[in-house]
Amino acid sequence: MKAKSNGKAVFLDRDGVINPLIYHREHGIIDSPFTVEQYRLLPRAAEAVKKLRKMGYRLVLVSNQPGIAKGHLTRNIFAKIQEKMESELARGDAYLDAQYYCFHHPEAVVPEMRVACDCRKPSPGMLLKAAREMGLDLPHSWMVGDGLTDIQAGKSAGTRTILIGRMKCELCHRCTEENARPEAVCADLFEAVNIIKSGEL
Questions:
Q1: Count of domains in the chain?
Q2: Taking a C-beta distance cutoff of 8 angstroms, is the pair 78, 39 a contact?
């Protein structure tokens, strides 16, 4: 059952927030899961999503997913990963209200995905589209992500922002220079929920 909402939302990045990033040794990169078997939820992610819904927030996934464009996985595998995410969340009685993905990348090997778009974060396109389609109140909403591009997208859209992970010293100057200073830095989504709930910000 969906909780009542007054238009406020929590926008969530996927990789590093809902599920862990994967080290792909064969490519020498840390990236999204490329197979269904690699996909799993982070501890307490489902519980965090469930809590946010009970607090009256709409839960909107906004994620850059260039894996198809780069040839790392197929549309069919991506769809199966998406199904697994939804199934694992549902097992914890947790549900997303909407999912928005940007599949483009400037270095895509799939020609039709090699485009300059306004949806790829740090652009706020996905957040703005969701706000229009869902009637969301951006100033009373949050963007939670594990990268500075998430924070930039949230700032540009007019939301408050929380960075998941550790604030390394080398990132501090970038946060100031690139309009990417978050309201808070948290270890995981569950901790972010507690900050949102506290109303301290």
A1: 1
A2: no
Segment 132-153, tens digit of pLDDT: 999 999 999 999 999 999 999 9
In sequence order, the β-bridge partners of residue 62 are 100
Q: Is the bond into 20 cis (omega within 30 degrees of 0)?
A: no
Model confidence, pTM: 0.91
Q: Which residues are catalytic?
A: 13, 15
Distances (CA, A) of 155 to 88, 99, 181, 183: 30, 20, 9, 10
Enter the DSSP assignment of 62: E
CATH at residue 53 = 3.40.50.1000
Q: Which residues contact 196 (CB under 8 A, 6 or more apart)?
A: 10, 52, 55, 57, 142, 162
Classify residue 140: in a domain, yes or no. Answer: yes
